[in-house]
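Folded chain entry —
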Amino acid sequence: MAVPLVEDVLKLLPALRRAHAGSFWVSYDAEGDVLYLSFRLPNVAETSDEIERDVLARYDEKGELIGYTVLNASRHGLGS
C-alpha cells in the first residue's frame, strides 16, 4: 500500500484552509475518475459552477459553497 508523502499533504493545507475554515472530507471514485472535496455532510448540491477546467464548485440551496468536484482527476495528478 502506497503511503502519501507527508510533504505533499502538508503543501495542500494552506489552500484547504483558505477554501474553508472547518472540517472537510475527501473521496475518490476510481471508476468515474472523480475527486470530491466536501465541507459538510450531507453535501447535496442545488447548483454548481465550473470554476476551472474540470473543477466544479458546488453550492447548497442558500448559495453557500459546500465543496468541489474534480472531474478527470487523474489528469490533474489525483487518484490512482
The chain has a mean pLDDT of 83. Residues 6-76 form one domain. The longest strand covers residues 47-52.
